[in-house]
Write a structure and sequence with these properties.
The strands form 3 sheets. A 4-stranded antiparallel β-sheet has the order 3-10-8-5, with no helix packed on it. A hairpin with a 2-residue loop joins β1 and β2. Among the domains are: 31 residues, no CATH class; 77 residues, RNA polymerase II/Efflux pump adaptor protein, barrel-sandwich hybrid domain (OB fold (Dihydrolipoamide Acetyltransferase, E2P)), CATH 2.40.50. The protein contains 2 helices and 10 strands. It has 167 residues and is an alpha+beta fold. It starts with a helix and ends with a strand.
């Protein structure tokens, strides 16, 4: 008996949450391998403390970051009133890492738009992960008030996709 789609999704979630590098499941006539995306190795090279050319760019970068921070905070403060969501809104988050698609295939209408009514079990998007197209279904009843990801954009695990006003 092969695994069903929900069981495979759950295995992907568990691997993403854990430190497991690879999981292989084999049953009668069925095999699945789930590998975690490997982060590129970071090589840190220590420079002698007396070397001023190494120290100056670092100090310059810190100064630039400190100057840029207040400007970034001002921009965020200006956006807060516009981007504020209703207090009772629910966020639909990505259950996996992959590529977000709003419609079932190119040229087809999107699953949902802002203002669309949704209910548990209704598809809201597709996330492509490891060449598999995973239809993401709503777990709540409500109305879409904001779509937070552009079509064909990469998404991370637990990244907000939609804001929903519950009904």
């Amino acid at each position: 008996m092969a695994m069903d789609f929900k069981q495979i999704q759950e295995l992907i979630r568990l691997v993403n949450k854990s430190n497991i590098g690879e999981l292989i499941v084999e049953e009668k006539g069925f095999s699945i391998t789930i590998k975690q995306k490997q982060e590129p190795a970071q090589h840190i090279i220590a420079a002698p403390a007396a070397s001023s050319p190494v120290m100056m760019p670092v100090a310059h970068t810190v100064a630039q970051a400190q100057q840029a921070a207040p400007a970034g905070q001002q921009a965020q403060d200006k956006q807060k009133p516009q981007d504020s969501a209703p207090a009772n809104s629910i966020t639909i988050k990505s259950p996996m890492i992959g590529t977000f698609y709003r419609s079932p295939s190119p040229g087809k209408p999107p699953f949902v738009e802002v203002g669309s009514d949704i209910e548990p079990g209704k598809p809201v998007c597709i996330i492509e992960a490891m060449k598999l197209f995973n239809e993401i279904e709503s777990e709540v009843k409500g109305r879409i008030i904001k779509i937070m990801v552009d079509d064909a954009s990469p998404v991370e695990y637990d990244q907000p996709l939609f804001l929903v006003e519950p009904s």
